[in-house]
Amino acid sequence: MGVPTIVYDLDGTLADTAADLMGALNAVLGGQGLAPLPVEQAGSLVGAGARALLQRGFAISGRPLAPATLEVLFGDFLAHYNAHIADLTALYPGVGTALDAFARAGWRQAICTNKMEGSARLLIERLGVADRFAFVCGQDTFGIGKPDAKPLLGAIAASGGLAARAIMVGDSVTDIRTARAAGLPVIAVDFGYTDVPVTELGPDRVISHFDELAAAVAALFPDAVFV
User: Model's pTM, two decimal places?
Assistant: First the structure.
């Protein structure tokens, strides 16, 4: 039936990136004379990419953001973020063990994130897990980001997999909508960045720790091989 593919979101799913993302946002806000925002607001700000993060941050701060200004500040944000991408970021507990287990079982693994692809690749290299992924898809890889199905389906195909034998793992409504648009089952983690509890968003399974991932996947792919 073909080797299965598991596609992960990155921010709030594989790695706790909130502090470094908010640090970059606050560096930009500070440069514009605006007060920093607390890391606790990441749940309502992160998930749609850096431009959306900036737009949301400026909206909360009560400052209009013209398109031309956004592009300039986007460059400033990326420069700061990439320079500090793993200062405070870490994989969530159990992620490394789960990635190793799926690799041993022969699964294809990929990332589909709304980060820029270059930032995503830099981060997983810094976190020491880049070799676990057959493909990394960012918001700019296919010219469109999630929740459009194109990047998810593109990541599966580029990994050598089939959509009929694939599953998505994410933390937010964006990931759930992406999986649904692609016709894939989706597992949600309940510790990521969302302002609505994922249990209310209708994923196929919810996990609270990566130790639970294999069992959740097995329930959705009963014929798949696990180690």
Answer: 0.93
